[in-house]
Each structure stands twice: as C-alpha cells, then as structure tokens.
Amino acid sequence: MSHLVDHRSTSPYRADEVYAAMVDPEYLRARLAKIGGARAELLDHHSDEQGAHYRLRHGLDAKDLPSLLRGVLPGAITVERDESWTRVDRGRYTGETKVTVAGTPASAAGGMRLNDTDGGGSELRVRIDVTVNVPVIGGRIESFVVGQVQNLLEMESRFLQEWLAETR
C-alpha cells in the first residue's frame, strides 16, 4: 500500500530563475541548515547545462516522532533524498526523486515538474508515492510520513521564495 503526495507551489519568478536557485549548492546548504534537521548535509552535487543531480541528508530526532513510531524505530531517523533534474526547454524542467529512510521499511519516489506560467511566474509540481511495508500499522505510519513530507515541501517552498526575494 502507498499514499500519494501531490504538492503544487507557485512563484512570481520564472522557472529558469527558480531552477537555478533550487540546484545551487549554496541554496541547498542554506535550506538544509534551516529546515533539514539534525545531521543535515549536501552529500553530492553535480550540475551542467542539461540538468542537475544531488543527494541530501535530513535528520529527525526520536523525540520528534509520535510514540507509535518511537516504539518500532531504533532512535533518530536519517532520510536521504536523491534528486535529478533535466532541462527540457527554456522555462521547462522535469525531475525525479527517490527517498530512503535508513533502517526502516519506508521509502518514497516520484516526479517533479517546473514550468513557466502564463502570468509570468512559474509552477512547481511534486508527486511522490510514500510506501511503508509494515503489517498492521503500516497505514498509520504512512499517514504520519505523508504529513511530514507535505510539511517539508511547504517549508521548502517558503524558503525558496524567501531565498529568491533576498538574492535576486
């Protein structure tokens, strides 16, 4: 069983500007420092004219987990995100993301799309399937993880807009 996260955010900035910020190692490090949790780190980064690939680590302390999860997990959680972006055309990008949660039966994978909009800005769409393979309580754990993913995507969207307003 899996749960779908469908996230949409808009920006007054064009897709090329948003993309340039999103794959900038300085931006990624700043975002991780602010909202990445314990042990957050940019593990790998490569970008060129065709696209970008990077790996991120997020951390979540055991005290921040619901009691249901603290009982079945070994302690703090380490989440790794592997994201790749491809430039399709000016103002148009597609991406893929894979998420692993070390030491757990939880994972997520999906696609991303960033496009210019008619109004002069851009839209980012992220669709991720979250899966937790645990009998009986897996659905409740998935619901928690989906909520965390949605919150993280919202925080990242806000941080991106703040970053663009300050640096552009």
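The above is record 1. Record 2 follows with the same two-line structure.
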Amino acid sequence: MPDVEEETGIRKGGRPPSPSPVSAPPVPQRPDGTVLAFDFGEKRIGIAIGETQLALAHPLTTIAAEQTDVRFEAIGRIIAEWRPCLLVVGLPVHMDDTEHAFTARARRFARQLEGRFNLPVELVDERLSSREAESMLRAAGVAAKRQKPVRDQVAAQTILQDYFEQHARH
C-alpha cells in the first residue's frame, strides 16, 4: 500500500508539505542619492543635479565641446566629484511619439555613459524641454542673448524634474 505522504502530498502530521521556494523577480528599487541628468546635444551637453530624497532638480553646468573624448573627460570629473547613484538622459522624440535620427544618438550616449561609468542610466522623454527652459529663463528675467550658455543645463533641470515627478514616492 502506498505511503499517505506519497499519495496525497500531506505529511502524517496533517500539514501539507512546505512549498518549494520560488524566487520572485526583484522589485526595482529607485536608488537614493545624487542624480545627474543630461540634455544631450551635438555642440553642448547640459547637466543638472538633484537628490532623490528632495526630488528637486537644479542646473549644474554645460559642457560646450564637440569632441567625444573631451565631453567624457568632463563628465568623468563631474561624476567623480558628485558620486551620483543614477544618471538620467533626455530622449528626444517627435510630438507624435515617433523617433528621429537624434533619438538614436541620445540612446547611444546613454549606453556610453552606462558602460564608461558603470552607473544605471534612465531615459526620460525630453519633448519641449528646451522651450520650457527658455520660458523659465525669460520668466527669471534672463535676456534672450544671455540664455544660450545656460539654456542646456536648465533643459537638463526640466528633464530631471520630470524624472523625479514620474518616480515620486507615494
């Protein structure tokens, strides 16, 4: 006669066997700490900074260089100084959500950041971030001809603030 446990899966003490451990996929955790955001461009890269705890973005600097090695050297110095836990890159797309040539370049830049600095990188829709930056600068009383040196870092600020709003803790 077969054993009761074999046949029913119930132990002689009347309790079913312990379930086998099943590993659930880890819940992605948003890192806590400093976050750097990038508004990638061919001639300039705007950079903003913020802290996840405050969820408030601030313009930091603009890298005005077209040479890749110069750009990444400057980014490396900023990362060494601020020690971010996360990088955010603005992803340009058309208003109808379709991608264009610069979308691929921004994605490539994000992959390069991740590979070179071994930090997680998230992409954030950056539609209208430059226009919003111009509007913010105008509202702050910055004349149009004086906006160019800071417009990209203010655009990065809007990208980072959008990231914080999308990932607000509840």
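The radius of gyration is 24 Å.
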